[in-house]
Write a structure and sequence with these properties.
Layout lengths: L20 H12 L7
């Protein structure tokens, strides 16, 4: 994709969906030391 303007760029997003978000947060905290800040 050619870009003429250096401020135009492709946008890429991602998302993760869990059946049990509370359990997923607890696992992420235990496994990787994550801390929830905006949940």
């Amino acid at each position: 994709m050619p870009v003429d303007d250096p401020f135009k760029h492709a946008v890429l997003g991602s998302g993760v969906f869990y059946r049990d978000p509370r359990a997923a947060l607890a696992w992420l905290q235990a496994a990787f030391g994550f801390e929830p800040s905006m949940v």
